[in-house]
């Protein structure tokens, strides 16, 4: 359908914007005395012919004339010239179309704004998800370092435990040595009193070493338990990190699909 729009004010602009999106409608010409009118500028931008004169209308190539000036004289002239050759809608009928077009334009603008909002929101979500993914990667690296440190700590505990066992062994030998010294001092009588003092001190040292060895062993056991707890918590952290990465990937796919569907 070929149409001619007479009047290039705001109403004419709305009709041009709306009709240019419909494949079955072609705007053949826009007419207005003011060549600087908004509708004329819009028509020129879209490659639509423009004219100042109604006489330039070709009725043989026009199906419908829309008069949107609201001027009765213009409406009368159009009826006199073209009523038997093509359909003419005066300003009252055109007003209805303009109202519908305006409503359509408002809905379209709201839809476009919604699309822009969705696109902006999708972009923000995508950026945040990338940030989360990067953080999860960092957490995973920290977890790996913790595991590495935990394994090293276990090795040190094993080595320290060997040292404690050696100290405990020395304490036992020292205690035996002290007992032997005490026995020899008793046999020596008065001459062995000084040696007896040394033997007593050796026994005290052996007992102290034993107590010290037991305390170190207790601390090492507690440390081993804490390291085991750290290892367990690290495993949980890795599991949560993997879950976060999986969730982020799913959200990314959903965002990509949303952007594609709304673009």
UniProtKB/TrEMBL annotation:
One Pfam family matching this protein: MCPsignal
Source taxon at top rank: Bacteria
Gene Ontology molecular function, alphabetical: transmembrane signaling receptor activity
Record keyword Transmembrane present: no
GO cellular component entries: membrane
Record GO biological process: chemotaxis; signal transduction
SUPFAM superfamilies named in the record: Methyl-accepting chemotaxis protein (MCP) signaling domain (SSF58104), NAD(P)-binding Rossmann-fold domains (SSF51735)
Residue span(s) of domain Methyl-accepting transducer: 101-263
Coiled-coil ranges (or none): none
Keywords in alphabetical order: Transducer
Entry annotated with the keyword tRNA processing: no
InterPro entries: Chemotax_Me-accpt_rcpt (IPR004090), MCPsignal_dom (IPR004089), NAD(P)-bd_dom_sf (IPR036291)
Similarity remark: Belongs to the methyl-accepting chemotaxis (MCP) protein family.
Name this polypeptide is given: Methyl-accepting chemotaxis protein 3
Gene symbol of the encoding locus: mcp3_4
